[in-house]
Prior knowledge:
Number of domains: 1
Largest sheet: 5 strands, mixed
Number of helices: 3
Strand content: 25-35%
Oligomer: single chain
CATH class: Alpha Beta
Number of strands: 5
Distance between the termini: 21 Å
CATH topology: Ribosomal Protein S5, domain 2
Shape: globular
Radius of gyration: 15 Å
Amino acid sequence: MIEETFKKIFGAPSEVVVRAPGRVNLIGEHTDYNDGFVLPAAIDRHIVFAGRRRDDRQVRAHSADFQDAVEFSLDDIRRDAAHPWSNYLRGVSKFLEEDGHRLSGADVVFGGDVPREAGLSSSAALEVGASAFW
């Protein structure tokens, strides 16, 4: 489905498909970033990315779940209050750039079946998928 959506939006097939699972924390909810212990496990729900690299530094991203799209430059990454879902992509790209990775622009479509705001790490799956894509 995501690959067909990509082709419909961008007029050509994607070059890369990435699947990132949601997760459940069996113990240690919200303790990992406080030096606590956690025991997470992947679940059978995923975020799927279809994408292709661009020759410039523009990112065109479409969220199939939100039926929304954004475009931003990797040379000027800023938070977007109007499209909060896109801030996960912006954040991943900003941290990768700050870590010395020179990213190329991309056309990306993503969506999945990880329930949002259900404690199943849909945002983490989005970030992992974006990291794997770049």
